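Hi F.,

I've been meaning to write this up properly since the lab meeting, where we talked about keeping a consistent format for the predictions we share between groups. The idea is simple: the sequence comes first, exactly as it goes in, then the structure tokens exactly as they come out, then a line or two of notes. No screenshots and no reformatting. I'm using this chain as the first example so we have something concrete to point to.
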Amino acid sequence: MKVLVINCGSSSLKYQLINMENQEVLGKGLVERIGIEGSVLKHEAKGVEGKVVIEQEMKDHKVALGLVLDALVDEKHGAVKELSEISAVGHRVVHGGEKFNGSVIITDEVMAAMEECVELAPLHNPANIMGINAIKELMPEVPNVGVFDTAFHQTMPKEAYLYALPYELYEEHGVRRYGFHGTSHRYVSERVSAMLGKDLKDLKVITCHLGNGASLAAIDGGKCVDTSMGLTPLEGLVMGTRCGDIDPAIIPFVMDKEGLDTKGINNVLNKKSGVLGISGVSSDFRDIENAAGDGNERADLALKIFDRRVKKYIASYAAVMGGVDAIVFTAGLGENSASNRKEICEGLEFMGVKVDAEKNNMRGKEAVVSADDSKVKVLVIPTNEELMIAKDTQELLK
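Output, unedited:
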């Protein structure tokens, strides 16, 4: 079975075509800066030397996905001759609400349920649905599977996922913490166990998925016991364009001052805030790091605010679990920014965290970057949400 996995983020799209007989990746790629100036597709395939770079404006995920499918069947650098060779498509879907606590084969009813969850994940579910619809149009006979970010976090205890609101809001409307990036947190936590040679049941792990969208998870004995995102992906860390934790009284205050309706304030919180709002430069951390290096004070401030928020969550999750054995950095920023990892870990020495500067001077590969005498292991693990999605897709279609 060959499974195409599509993983849409708020401004990116990752994909892999995987032969599930041996888990060999036949083709893969990354689309970056969707909806941002400088959109680019980087594609590679087994047996084809080097990467193919396609620079083209991509105003939305539908355009990006069209280019991906073209690349996969290209005569020179494709991974398959025809799209009919693909047996199934697994889609990352961000929000399943209370409707889904596991992966499902996508039907019309499932699509309708995902549409109902759009208001809970306005930056992501529309992109996920767009990808599914594009695949259904291009390959109508191929089954599609939805793998939900929220599923991994269903092990949280009630005291972790309930808000201090009238209980009826949970009972009647499902207002609670759901958590996201579940496939990523699940994958890297399992890799920690393998890299350290310890049973995951014996480990307390804090996983840091840091990218344009960012979240942390506290994983005790292989089960998620807390996570930073909430009812929607807006809560928690400062992100590319999302504000993260704020005083909720700010919302009606700003609405009154700026004359905004609910759609307007949602747009501010989800698309104009985060490091973009603080820096005024970009939602891309690479642009912000470059601007900070050139002396831009607001860009430097945006990075400091981001790092501080991550640090606070790490310390609080260590308290929730009664300790921590390993801290893992993953996703675009977590895997590739040595400076951010350094700044986040500085000040956590009281917890037994010590990063080795030389080991930390790397990017994009699995490594233990903590000092030999660090009580808490600090690791960098490139995430592989695609493999987790492909496995769930294969299992369901069996």
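Notes:
DSSP finds 15 helices and 14 strands in the chain.
The first strand starts at residue 2 and ends at 8.

If this format works for you, I'll send the rest the same way.

G.
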